[in-house]
Amino acid sequence: MSTLLLQLINGFSYGFLLFIITCGITIVFGILGVLNLAHGSFYLLGSYLGYSLIMKAGLPFWAALAAVPLIIAVLGYMLETIILRPTYKLGHLSQVLLTFGLAYIFHDLFAILWGKNMLVVDPPPALNMSIQLAGYSVPAYRIALIVIGLAIAIFLWFFQEKTKWGAVIRAGLSDKEMAAGLGVNIHLVFTFVFVLGSLFAGVGGVIGSPILGAFPGMEFQILILSLVVLVVGGLGSVSGTLIASLLVGFVETFSRYLVPELSLIITFALMAVVLVVRPQGLIGRRV
């Protein structure tokens, strides 16, 4: 029973971490139509910066969690306005190739700056312990990760469904041309969405580093799982991304525990089943 409870906690925490990372790439792809293959690099950069600030510079964990996503957001702003914006009229292939090339550039830079060994960030002292849940000991940090992920999910739902900016973003998702015709500054929306997606990649990088660590090549593992979540959840759907993230998190966690040599196959089999049964994703629109 204790092992089952631990795996359930691990599945929930990993699923919410995937949600935090993937919600950014979901809204960017849903609204801009840009599949940012450097998104995993933003996540890993967040992990590395968190390691440098927390483990090397001695900055408190929560201060690093506030600072690092802002740095990644600025990087996202520069990438969208300087590099990606001129390619919007060239088609999706140019953007895919461009961001994929950037991912490899980041990969080499990370190896030069931080080396090739795995680096792990210590959880904040208040959460670096176990707590009793149903009579069993579970890591406090994983419980905190679930709470943080749930809070972000509620915030994104409220922002998308109940605010003016959320309405503008939904309009851009439904029909970019119509939204522009009604006076919406679509370039400003594009930039805001890309910066928001980059910021959440930075958040995921910092809070994920105590669990997953950071090492060269990890950005591509995270990118693949994010794309699986994107396909399973549905285009531009925050609720679909949440459900898919939890589903993939549980499948990954339990398959790695039960049949580790088949975990990746099982994850992609899940995606294949969803594509066959519901091509638009669990909660997505047909395109």
From TrEMBL:
Keyword Transmembrane helix carried by entry: yes
Cellular component terms per the entry's GO annotation: plasma membrane
PANTHER family: ABC TRANSPORTER ATP-BINDING PROTEIN, BRANCHED-CHAIN AMINO ACID TRANSPORT SYSTEM PERMEASE PROTEIN LIVH
One GO term of the biological process aspect: amino acid transport
Membrane-spanning intervals of the chain: 12-39, 59-84, 96-115, 140-159, 180-202, 222-250, 257-277
Similarity comment: family membership: Belongs to the binding-protein-dependent transport system permease family. LivHM subfamily.
Keywords, comma-separated and alphabetical: Amino-acid transport, Cell membrane, Membrane, Transmembrane, Transmembrane helix, Transport
Domain of life: Bacteria
Subcellular localization, as worded in the UniProt entry: Cell membrane
InterPro entries: ABC_transp_permease (IPR001851), BCAA_transport_permease (IPR052157)
Protein name (record): Branched-chain amino acid ABC transporter permease
UniProt membrane topology term: Multi-pass membrane protein
A GO MF term: transmembrane transporter activity
